[in-house]
Specification:
It comes from Candidatus Aphodenecus pullistercoris. Belongs to the RecN family. This protein is α/β, with parallel strands linked by helices. The protein contains 19 helices and 15 strands. It has helices at 35-45, 75-82, 115-125, 131-136, 140-151, 154-200, 207-219, 221-236, 243-260, 265-291, 296-315, 320-338, 340-386, 426-429, 432-445, 466-479, 492-497, 522-534, 539-549; strands at residues 2-10, 13-19, 24-28, 61-69, 91-99, 104-108, 111-112, 126-129, 393-404, 407-416, 424-425, 454-458, 484-488, 500-509, 512-520. The longest helix has 47 residues, at 154-200.
Length: 553
């Protein structure tokens, strides 16, 4: 519940602290005194968009702090825990700072958050009923949501949505398969031709590089042969010119020296190793020279093969690897075309299974909604009769519609306000005053299911008076037994029932307009109740106000 609201430099408010310690609080004041400013400040900490022009003129920033408490095990606690934003002793502090430069800062328990976070959390903290909310009650989607809320069908609805998405996905896959098959059927001859060309080529990764090297070697065979001949001659030349002969001479001379100095043996060993290595190289070069023979046919064959691969590379991606990848792709495409009927049958089974599951879950959802609607109809009708619509009959009609993400049902709230009249959708037959009472009747009917602790009513009493106003006050009082109720009202009957009463007023200080809000009691509250009743304060209105506060009127 909302424990405390602190507002600084916001619109006409310089500095304000409101303690909401009671379960039923009312805010009253003359039109234009600034009651909407309080709603605006609270709206900001609940995630509404902020504007720079809400900063009090001449100030750099507006600051709103709201302190909430929450129950252990509540949805609020779960939301905070999942995001690591828990506070101490189930306390929750939300701060919103709006700077005149336009930037906004938001935090929960000292942790920076986004406006989306505040919006999500705000829906768990405060339920706002206003003239706008009355209008939203006319929407079929909102009416369906209210029935689902009372039905506690979140798990079933979640399963239904999964089935709906599964069916939609299966149908999309069918459309994709049909479209793809149509496209590929038109291209099949071309793909078959290309694949046949690639299959006949017996492609092997890296073959084009090997062929290029072979052809380069063949084209330079004369140069290679001459160079190799020269290399072999340099190794095997005569005793005085070949490397091996010169090494042999060195070995002979070194052998004589070793007889006089055995420490030279290591050099002799190294010369021996070098001689063996050079001999091996000379033999290998000789073998390579012997193999350097290419026929004209071999040259033509390799050239033709490389040209074939180059054509395929140019046609299918620029590299042999790309050609091989395209070949594999075309194999798969033709396989899919050939298997189209099988794939279509398999997907048709998937569609049928998803449709059956959707129909089953949709029927269960409809069943739950019908039971809930029947229960709600009775409760809301009884509540409306308490609120002065003595002959009212409230009904909830469920009509089948094409399957959508929210089920197979359309919900319409209908009202017969007077005996003998035909019932009709509340959007067509309910007056402004009746809409206010329907909203309150629905809130009262859903109080047991509503996990939101704080209910804020913004002039829900608009257009009401007399006995009906007293009935509305009684219902708000009843709601405050299970929820915190905060209401902005023009009705004395409601103000008198509240446990704490805040007066909103506007004045001038140092040549500037300032809105102030103070909690009132005693004679000050009597005078405000009298003003609400009569518009001015007189002896009679004061007496009536005292009677109302004492519960005698």
């Amino acid at each position: 519940m909302l424990e405390r609201l602190e507002i600084t430099n916001f619109v006409l408010i310089r500095s304000l602290v409101l303690d909401f310690s009671s379960p039923f609080a009312v805010l009253t004041g003359e039109t234009g005194s600034g009651k909407s400013i309080i709603l605006g400040a609270l709206g900001l900490v609940l995630g509404e968009k902020g504007r720079a022009d809400v900063v009090r003129q001449g100030e750099k920033e507006a600051i709103i702090n709201a302190l909430f408490s929450y129950r252990a095990g509540s949805a609020v606690e779960d939301w905070l825990r999942k995001r690591g934003l828990e506070g101490d002793d189930h306390g929750l502090v939300i701060q919103r700072v709006i700077r005149s430069a336009g930037r906004s800062m938001m935090s929960i328990n000292g942790y920076s958050v986004t406006r989306s976070d505040l919006e999500d959390l705000g829906q768990l903290l405060v339920d706002v009923s206003s003239q706008h909310a009355h209008q939203s009650l006319l929407k079929k989607s909102v009416q369906l949501s209210l029935v689902d809320k009372a039905a506690h069908d979140e798990e079933l609805l979640s399963e239904y949505r999964k089935a709906f998405d599964e069916l939609a996905g299966a149908k999309e896959e069918t459309e994709r398969l049909v479209a793809e098959n149509g496209r590929l059927s038109q291209e099949r001859d071309y793909i078959s031709f290309c694949l046949d060309e690639m299959e006949k080529a017996s492609l092997r990764p890296g073959e084009d590089d090997e062929l290029s090297e072979d052809l380069k070697r063949i084209s330079q065979s004369g140069l290679i042969t001459g160079c190799l001949d020269e290399s072999v001659s340099a190794l095997r030349g005569g005793m005085d010119s070949g490397a091996l002969g010169l090494i042999a001479r060195a070995q002979s001379s070194l052998g004589k020296a070793i007889k006089a100095d055995s420490s030279l043996q290591s050099f002799a060993d190294r010369l021996e190793s070098t001689s063996i290595e050079l001999e091996d190289i000379a033999m290998s070069l000789g073998d390579y020279l012997s193999s350097m023979s290419f026929s004209e046919g071999e040259l033509e064959e390799k050239s033709a093969r490389l040209a074939q691969l180059q054509r395929l590379k140019k046609k299918h991606g620029g590299s042999l690897e790309a050609v091989i990848a395209r070949r594999d792709e075309y194999r798969g495409i033709l396989e899919n075309v050939d298997n189209f009927d099988h794939l279509l049958k398999e997907n048709a089974k998937r569609v049928a299974q998803a449709q059956a599951r959707l129909d089953d879950l949709g029927a269960k959802l409809t069943q739950v909604r019908r039971r809930t609607a029947s229960r709600l109809e009775k409760t809301i009708t009884a509540n409306l009769q308490k609120l002065g619509l003595k002959s009212a009959v409230f009904t909830i009609e469920l009509s089948p519609v094409e399957a959508g993400p929210r089920g197979l049902d359309e919900v319409v709230f209908t009202l017969c306000a007077n005996k003998g009249e035909k019932a009709g959708p509340v959007s067509q037959v309910a007056s402004g005053g009746e809409l206010s009472r329907i909203m309150l009747a629905v809130k009262c009917a859903l109080e047991a299911e509503d996990e939101v602790d704080t209910l804020l009513f913004d002039e829900i009493d608009a257009g009401l008076g007399g006995v009906v106003a007293n009935s509305v006050a009684c219902e708000l009082k009843n709601l405050s037994r299970s929820h915190q109720v905060i209401t902005i009202s023009h009705l004395a009957q409601i103000a008198a029932r509240a446990e704490s009463h805040f007066l909103v007023s506007k004045s001038e200080e140092e040549g500037r307009t300032v809105s102030t809000i103070v909690e009132i009691g005693g004679e000050e509250r009597v005078r405000e109740i009298a003003r609400l009743m009569a518009g001015d304060v007189s002896h009679i209105s004061l007496e009536h106000a005292r009677s109302l506060l004492e519960g005698k009127a």
